[in-house]
Amino acid sequence: MEGLKPMFNKLRIGKKGENIIFGTFVLLYIGWCVNSPDMNIESLKSVLTIGLSVGIIYGLVALGISLIYTGLDVVNFSHGEFFMIGAFAGLTMFNLLGNQDWIFNIFPDAYGWIIYVVCLFTAFVSMGLFGVFIERVFLRPLTKKGGGYTVAGMGIIICGFGLSVVLINVAYLIWNPVAKPFPAELGLPMEIGGLFLPITYIWMIVVGLSVAAGLWFFLNKTKMGLGIRAVAYSKDVSNLVGINVPLYISIIFGIACAIAGIGGTLVGPTYQVVVFMGYIILMKAFAAAVVGGFGNLPGAIVGGFTVGIFETASSFYISGSHKDLYAFLLMIVVLMIKPTGFFGVQVKMKA
Amino acid sequence: MLKINQLISGYGSVQILNGANMRVEKQSIVALLGGNGTGKSTILRAASGLIRSWKGTIEFDGEQIQNLPAHEIVGRGLVQVTQGKDVFPAMSVTENLKLGGFILKSKQQLSDNLEKVYNYFPRLNERKDQLAATLSGGELQMLCIGRGLMSNPKMIMLDEPSAALAPQIVLDIFKNINRIRQDGLTVLVVEQNVRMALLLADYGYVIKDGVINVEGDSKKLMYDESVKESYLGGTKANV
Hints:
The complex is a heterodimer.
Chain A (H helix, E strand, L loop, with lengths): L3 H8 L2 H22 L5 H32 L6 H20 L2 H6 L4 H29 L8 H4 L1 H23 L14 E3 L2 E3 L1 H23 L1 H11 L1 H6 L4 H23 L9 H16 L4 H21 L7 H13 L14
Antiparallel strand pairs in A: 1-2
Chain B lengths: L1 E10 L2 E11 L4 E5 L6 H8 L5 E8 L2 E2 L5 H6 L2 E4 L11 H8 L6 H14 L1 H5 L10 H13 L5 E5 L7 H16 L3 E6 L2 H7 L2 E6 L2 E7 H5 L2 H7 L8
Parallel strand pairs in B: 3-8, 3-9, 6-7, 7-8
Antiparallel strand pairs in B: 1-2, 1-4, 4-5, 9-10
């Protein structure tokens, strides 16, 4: 075995080599797309818009996964279900408000928008509270043996899988498995650069980016955000400066789930709301998080955009029948060539 | 100020402290000495609430504080300063210090305390916008002590402030610890550097196998044969 070591050492390509190989792949891919018979400026525009709007959804879910990973050192495999239940929470609010004439009488012009914003807000708040509830009731007891989340990690990951199944089936009982439309009235399609786009795409991108920017502001400019960053780095030192660490862990989990809930309500009007929508979103968001650099928050959004555009472009220019394949193909290529993702995170050293 | 009575504690199922007794008087500097693995840091961790106390009491300012949540103990004015490397490396020096004052309610108090810490350690003022990861070992230690002072504590507990530092810097830091005491704080220092710690302290405790072995006035302890013995793990060199 010792003889093999020098050989492997020679195979190390370093950061520059990584970038060159990755760049070659990107160029090859772009060349492939350009050669496609469908390639023209019109299709490129729609591919980019759809890619960005799908990408921001992946990005939002990936943001939550990354936030929980940096804060709690575990991967939350039930995150897709918070996305799904968030969509249903938004839809329920929409159905409640949809028949109310008084809202229409007060705001005849912005009726659809106002209801939709209330739905988004409902999804945000209810998923935040639901996330805190799940964390306190199901995950926290697993850390009773001591050592906190870092030590109880594997148990919590398995618990996440279990929670995912339970939550899907609870949703199945409540809302039954039929796909439901989310007919939000947001206005007529918008014309951007000669392209007519459903307004929901614009909403997805705008709201998604504002949520990401809001999270950045919250983490970097507020006192609570400072505390969250401290807890994410070290629970012990945070305890010693007087931060209520158990409370902050709940807050981290709640924020991550609330963002997933917003994501669910955002895709509702474009696609439909189904009980099983969480699973594939979780997997793709996971791919997005890996592509951007696992645990890196801006990386999650960039990774989401990358996966979204790659997926849409590939299914448009290469083959549309394998749409769900491309995200994972990209993840494997990134893991092979740039294992730390675009924004590599340094591995935390823990005692 | 701090009274530790028959404290028994440990990690997981491993018992480290076997009934330790200590007293720290108000406005004094007390040194807690001992070799590796004797339970020095465990006493601090139990006092600051990072680990549970299995038995015994810890009394601070007349009230029992054992097994309170760690952040409440900080709120009562007992702050532990960990060994030098425990800062938040991706944050600037100022941000690190502001985190130290996390429990403070008013902004005015925060900036007053920031001023006070920069007064103790002018070096930190020069480096205030730098990331903590770029500081030297001595500056990191200053940052840790400064962070501990930010929350207006009544007593601070220092865990090996001289670890892995050059003698000149150790002297500088110990001078500052003395200044902190003169400004009205109580200080408990856990040290491996016996001579320096006893020069600084008024009173000393030597811990061995989880119990206090020797205690006494620091001037007396300095020349005590049993201190050396205890410190070297009880084996007398046959020279």
